[in-house]
Amino acid sequence: MTEQGISAEPTQQQFAIEKIFVKDISFESPAAPQVFTQKWEPEVNLQLNSNARGIGENHFEVILGLTVTVTNAGQTAYLAEIQQCGIFVMSGFQQEELGPMLGSFCPNILFPYGREAIADMSTRGGFPPLHLAPVNFDALYAQHVQQQTQENTAAESSAKH
């Protein structure tokens, strides 16, 4: 203890997964049943997004959105969407450490659950299972931070003129 009675030891970081759940899930196959009579040469388009918000003291909800559009012969074979969520408890992290935790580390935890749900939905829809490739959330987060920095710099530059 220091003279002021405040501990000089650094605060210990704690991280826990409180809950992993699906907030929203959807599967559509607008070209069925005709799509099943055509040669299967799919084109896959994956859109990812993540969102995080505080939901109480040291509690954060992270939502990983996956939207997969599969086309075959120029028409949509199926569209699968999921909002895979988690409630994470984090304490002892500095403010600048929370961004990478919420923007990269937590989505990395959620992705395998969303990936499994997409594969299951495609199979239940009568299609071959769709196994999404791994995603480098660290690189995506770094790209997002760089883009935000460039936008802020551009906004400050235009505000000065």
Which labels suit this protein?
single chain, 161 residues, alpha+beta, Bacterial Protein-export protein SecB, 4-stranded antiparallel beta sheet
Q: How is this structure best described in words?
A:
By secondary structure, the protein is α+β, with helices and mostly antiparallel strands. The protein has a single domain (14-156), classed as Bacterial Protein-export protein SecB (Roll), CATH 3.10.420. It is 34% helix and 37% strand. The chain contains two helices and four strands; from the N terminus they run E-E-E-E-H-H. A four-stranded antiparallel sheet has the order 1-4-3-2. A hairpin with a 2-residue loop joins strand 3 (59-72) and strand 4. The chain is globular and about 65 Å long. The N and C termini lie far apart (52 Å). The relative contact order is 0.18.
Task: Give me the secondary-structure topology.
Blueprint: E1 14-28, E2 43-56, E3 59-72, E4 75-91, H1 95-124, H2 137-160
Antiparallel strand pairs: 1-4, 2-3, 3-4
Helix pairs in contact: 1-2
Number of helices: 2
What proportion of the residues is helical, as a percent range? 25-40%
User: What is the CATH third-level topology name?
Assistant: Bacterial Protein-export protein SecB
> What's the overall average pLDDT, rounded?
91
> From the coordinates shown, what is the CATH architecture?
Roll
End-to-end distance: 52 Å
* Total beta strand runs: 4
Q: How would you sum up the major sheet?
A: 4 strands, antiparallel
Can you tell me the residue ranges where pLDDT is under 50 for at least 5 consecutive residues? none
**General form:** globular
In total, how many domains does the architecture comprise?
A: 1
